[in-house]
Automatic annotation (TrEMBL), chain A:
Keywords: Signal
Keyword Signal: yes
Signal peptide residues on this chain, from the entry's feature table: 1-26
Protein name stated in the entry: Uncharacterized protein
Upper lineage: Bacteria, Bacillati, Actinomycetota, Actinomycetes, Micromonosporales
PROSITE patterns (alphabetical): PROKAR_LIPOPROTEIN
Domain of life according to the entry: Bacteria
Length: 308, 132
């Protein structure tokens, strides 16, 4: 039997909604996704990394309280004191491309500061392992039936943004910049040992400048004893500030000045905004589908922790 | 051979120099063939960790995968570096998501793995960090 005009109109509207969301139906119980951040100068602010961190933290806390209730308080005792956005690197600022000031370049060189991290928890107790699996599943269910799926899907979305980001910015920058940077650094007395290699890939390591060390390197020596029936706690990872040596500082300051004075830093930010918008457009259906769910889950997470 | 570009970070003034040195070679997780709880496990060829050959396990961070060789190698070939050759990752860390970086020394974050999760990964891996 042929469809009525009203039925056909309804089908067209439904198809339009389906297509506009990239083939994914929105959850009608939740408010529609607000995509306006994509037009700002921080397009990736559309990605809800803070909310993802809240969901992660709530699930961990509920899981760890469950473990403590089963006689295993170790995870609860060592967990971080607050949520942490696992995709902080998707906040694209001047600092995403290197030091943002001469003072920062002088202090940090080409290094990075590190946040603290909890220790590794190693079980040699099958009863703990059973409790871990049980409490993990219970904690996800405490959030919602599909919380784990949404959580994993949002990590996947974050990686769809993160992985192509820097390669696409490089492509968008054009091929003249390595020569521009090389000339500028040379004018400040810094020459690489291999100019051809620098032009192919402008790497500070080509200047034979000693760099600092990784503050957490000593942790690599920890080995649990693995006595049956025990739960072992490794060393916590302290927050650390990177301190560049004098030669690294001098090169980093020159590098910063060259990026600033040649317009390279400004161009990187301009291209970065374009690339972010392109990546959002490519993944718009996922934002439409997942952002309302993540916002909802984050609220439930806050409620859950408040009640826990 | 799995190719990669280091332009992303080098153009932005971030060193690709290796840090970590010999210390990075000491952490091999529990040293067993299977990927066990609390370990961060890399797999050379993605097979959903159904086999245990060509894997490399860690408890903690590693700033330089170019001084790590694949373990559990059946034919005794231990000359393959982990850097830029991994095909899969299983994050069994009980506390942290793990970020894998395109370059050594935690330069250029590439992909971030949630807890209790495994999947194929791009071969662009030169360092990794917990709760980054």
């Amino acid at each position: 039997m042929p469809a009525t005009r009203q039925q056909f109109a309804a089908l067209v509207v439904a198809a339009a909604v389906l297509l506009s969301s990239g083939g994914c139906w929105q959850d009608e119980r939740l408010p529609a996704a607000d995509l306006s951040a994509a037009e700002s100068d921080q397009p990736f602010s559309l990605f809800l990394g803070e909310e993802l961190g809240q969901i992660d933290y709530a699930q961990l806390k509920v899981r760890n309280k469950c473990l403590a209730g089963e006689g295993y308080p170790q995870n609860l005792n060592i967990m971080l004191g607050e949520p942490r956005n696992p995709f902080r690197h998707l906040r694209i600022t001047e600092s995403s491309f290197g030091p943002a000031s001469e003072a920062e370049a002088r202090r940090i060189g080409f290094g990075r500061d590190s946040l603290s991290a909890p220790p590794s928890v190693v079980s040699s107790d099958p009863s703990y392992d059973d409790a871990y699996d049980r409490c993990t599943a219970e904690a996800w269910r405490a959030l919602s039936d599909d919380s784990q799926d949404v959580y994993y899907a949002y990590f996947e979305l974050g990686n769809k943004l993160s992985e192509p980001l820097m390669p696409l910015i490089d492509e968008g920058m054009g091929s003249q910049w390595p020569q521009t940077l090389l000339s500028c650094l040379a004018s400040k007395g810094h020459g690489p040992r291999d100019e051809a290699a620098f032009l192919k890939s402008p790497n500070p390591a080509l200047f034979d400048v000693p760099v600092g060390t990784d503050a957490a390197a000593g942790l690599d020596f920890w080995e649990p004893k693995r006595m049956p029936g025990t739960i072992e706690i490794g060393p916590a990872v302290p927050a650390s500030e990177y301190r560049a040596g004098p030669a690294e500082s001098r090169l980093a300051v020159a590098w910063f000045q060259c990026r600033r004075d040649t317009g390279m830093a400004r161009e990187q930010l301009r291209v970065a905004v374009e690339v972010q918008r392109d990546l959002i457009e490519k993944n718009e259906h996922l934002f439409v589908e997942l952002n309302p769910k993540v916002i909802d889950l984050a609220k439930q997470s806050a409620d859950l922790i408040g009640a826990a | 051979m799995k190719a990669r570009s280091i332009m992303a970070a080098t153009l932005v003034g971030i060193a690709a120099a290796a840090l970590g040195g010999t210390a990075a070679q000491a952490d091999k997780g529990d040293g067993k063939a299977a990927c066990n709880r609390a370990e961060i496990c890399f797999d050379f060829a993605w097979d959903d960790f159904m086999t245990s050959s060509f894997q490399r396990h860690f408890w903690y961070n590693d700033a330089d995968h170019s001084n790590d060789i694949w373990g559990n190698v059946p034919d005794g070939n231990t000359s393959l570096w982990v850097a830029n050759t991994a095909g899969g990752l299983w994050n069994r860390d009980t506390e942290c998501a793990v970020t894998v970086y395109d370059l050594s020394s935690y330069r250029t974050p590439y992909t971030t793995f949630p807890r209790d999760f495994r999947s194929p990964i791009s071969a662009r891996n030169n360092s990794h960090k917990r709760c980054a």
